[in-house]
Amino acid sequence: MTTKCDKCGYGYHEVKSPELANRIRAFGPLFRGVLVGVDPRIVHRRPAPDEYSAIENVLHVADVMRQQHNRIWLMLVHDEPEVVPVPGDDSLVNAAYQNFDLETALDGLTEASTALADAIEDLRDEEWSYTAVLHFPYRSVRNIDWVVRDAIHEGVHHLIDTRRSLTP
Q1: Taxonomically, which superkingdom (predicted)?
Q2: CB 61 within 8 A of CB 154
Q3: 19-165, what's its fold?
Q4: What digits encode the pLDDT tens for the residues 79-125?
């Protein structure tokens, strides 16, 4: 298992377990703080053809939060379910992302992050070890603890990318 991201520096075990839900819940306000008042042309501009725009980062992280929330639910009700990858750099998805209003996107991220954080707070101790089979980037068995930490990684990573996307 990857323990530290080479690109953003996030370490999967640097966040203490009692802080996980609050870290997830913070992504809505963090992204909002970076993006409120930014010119919409800049928010929708890709810094390079293979890099997300700020709006794409916000919507991708919201998608991840929803997907991880869904994964946790599946892990709680099924014995080691097989789950699908989170939508990634799909040109059709990203084209649709470009039509979103920033405020709507930020509200969606806040709602998705809050729902995931609420679900995390409701977990019983033994449920953190429930597992699922994931298929990205390769087939692996992961537990709920990893799924939550991966959601935080996505938020941290794409928040850095969002800040970077705002500079010319």
Answers
A1: Bacteria
A2: yes
A3: Four Helix Bundle (Hemerythrin (Met), subunit A) (1.20.120)
A4: 999 998 766 656 546 667 778 899 999 999 999 999 999 999 999 99
